Amino acid sequence: MQALELPKPLGPADFLEFDKQQAELGQLLFYDPILSGNRNISCGTCHNHELGSGDGLSLGIGEGGEGVGTKRTAGSGDDQIRKRIPRNSPALWNLGAKEISMLFHDGRVSISDVYGNGFNTPAEEWLPQGIENILAAQAMFPVTSQFEMAGNPKENEVAGAAHDRIDAVWPILAKRVRIIPEYGEMFVRTYSDVAQPSDVNITHIVNAIGAFIGLEWQSFDSPYDLYLSGNDSAMIPAAQNGQDLFFGKAGCATCHMGKLLTDQKFHALALPQFGPGRTRRFDPMVRDVGRMAQTDRLEDAYRFRTPALRNVALTSPYGHNGAYSTLEGIVRHHLDPESAFEIWQIEQAKLPNAPWLNEVDYIAYQDTRERERLKSNIDIQPVELSDAEVAEIVAFLNALTGGTSVKGRLGRPENVPSGLAVD
């Protein structure tokens, strides 16, 4: 395969402008469980600074779980989880870049004016006006999800509202936040259209969270970035060889292209299915059909969005469902998806113990017809590489790890205005 041209360096001009004061407010909201139905989980639980902006699990443990990262448990008694989060917690690096046009593994939040509010989202026309960017738009939805942050029906008013209509959740959460005196004062100082705390609505909250994500997880100071900027010795020889393979023989850059190393398109790789799946309302099967669930087009079946790769070495496990815990594992899967699919074992997934979920966890994996459907939808051709070449690609992927940027800018707060515990 002919080598592709290397991208131009990524830099500050490639990002949207975010207000620092909003970001400081957003940092607190991001880690404050006040935005969850039962006040026991925050955005930072599953997108933690200590875990590369993820949670270290294949499939997350949402509302009802206890702890953080690989030590998080599935809860106990009446609070134990009813199902796992169907997909891997996506990394947040560089999502504030101007070229980002859609978010989530299936692209269910995208920039569009189809509903007259600037975005195409699960809320459709019920999404309010005033949302500043796509990062703020995506922050509207985890708080409405039963298994992520809202909780089970009848447990709290947020969960009940979510089962009424999606936009019924947001006024409840906005009131929760604005009646906390410290938050009320911060909103008045931060927003010109907030004269008093009672003016705060959900758009002010998510715009602050979006500003925090957009500023906090900017990263373009890796050895690879230095190399692109003209420092030929910034990457070790193995990483330079891996870069040549990535943009040439291995074909990785066919999809992982451009400054962000993503084409923002959807591809089917036959990653093995496990967990509860993300089924459509009329789909009786435990499975995840990816982009097709949003478009209802058969040609989109089992296709998922290409992830960006800065700091990928920090964001294990890999794939839309975290099927592989190592970079070598996910690289080898890409080189021969069908063969890798056949030998994969569910023990490779990082799933906190929850015996009452075992049956559901294994349904899709053991479904022979579903396995054949997955294998019949593969978008990449096998590529033969030696073990040494695979190791060089892994070395290149490690060279995408940033320097001081990996610690963030504001970091994780020690406490939040609600007084609730910070994960």
List its traits:
Cytochrome Bc1 Complex, Chain D, domain 2, two-stranded antiparallel ribbon, mainly alpha, 16 helices
Structural summary, described in words:
The chain is mainly α. The chain folds into two domains: 15-54 and 90-218, Orthogonal Bundle (Cytochrome Bc1 Complex, Chain D, domain 2); 223-398, Cytochrome Bc1 Complex, Chain D, domain 2. The protein is built from 16 helices and five strands. A hairpin with a 5-residue loop joins strand 1 and strand 2 (109-111). Helix 1 (20-30) packs across helix 8 (202-216) and helix 12 crosses helix 16. The mean pLDDT is 96.
The largest pleated sheet is described as: 3 strands, antiparallel
Given the C-alpha coordinates, what overall shape results? Answer: globular
Strand content: under 5%
The CATH homologous superfamily of the largest domain: Cytochrome c-like domain
Distance between the first and last residues' Cα: 47 Å
Summary of the model, kept short:
The protein has 423 residues and is mainly alpha-helical. Helix content is 31%, strand content 3%. The chain has helices at residues 20-30, 43-46, 134-138, 146-150, 157-162, 169-178, 181-190, 202-216, 223-228, 237-246, 292-295, 327-335, 337-343, 358-366, 368-375, 387-398, and strands at 102-103, 109-111, 119-120, 266-267, 304-305.
